[in-house]
Write a structure and sequence with these properties.
This protein is of the alpha/beta class and 121 residues long. Helix content is 44%, strand content 20%. The chain has one domain: Response regulator (Rossmann fold, 3-Layer(aba) Sandwich). The protein has five helices and five strands, in the order E-H-E-H-E-H-E-H-E-H. Strands 2-1-3-4-5 form a five-stranded parallel sheet, sandwiched between helices. Helix 3 links the parallel strand 3 and strand 4. Helix 1 crosses helix 5 and helix 2 packs across helix 3. The two termini are 14 Å apart.
């Protein structure tokens, strides 16, 4: 049985690209594009990995990450943060909120797949 990923991203091209990469490798991919209720979607889906964009409508990825970590049902789900902002302060903030990995856009297909596989290993 394959693993599942919840992709929380509001950019359709990125959703399509990551979904294609992961599903081709046998992953079940669900996507969600609104930060306001994203943590509820994580609770509902209980994915093996969450791929989380920083800039989302409704709430930032940092706020969503904080909610995921504060909930006992989702606290241990690995989270890969995606952002177009590569500054050290953003990386440090993601790490302080409990992100397992951090990746800047643009990214390579193989890099996404490698990081997601590492998170479930």
């Amino acid at each position: 049985m394959g693993h599942s990923v919840l992709l929380i991203e509001d950019e359709p091209n990125i959703i399509e690209a990551i979904s294609f990469i992961l599903s081709r490798d046998g992953w079940t991919v669900h996507s969600h594009s609104n930060g306001a209720d994203a943590s509820n979607e994580v609770i509902r889906r209980q994915p093996d990995v969450v791929v989380l964009d920083v800039m989302l409508p409704g709430k930032t990825g940092f706020e969503v990450l904080q909610e995921i970590r504060e909930n006992t049902e989702t606290a241990n789900i690995p989270v890969l943060m995606l952002t177009a902002r590569g500054q050290n302060k953003d990386r440090e903030k993601a790490e302080s909120y409990g992100a397992n990995m951090y990746m800047t856009k643009p990214f390579s297909n193989s890099e996404v797949l490698e990081k997601v596989k590492t998170l479930v290993a």
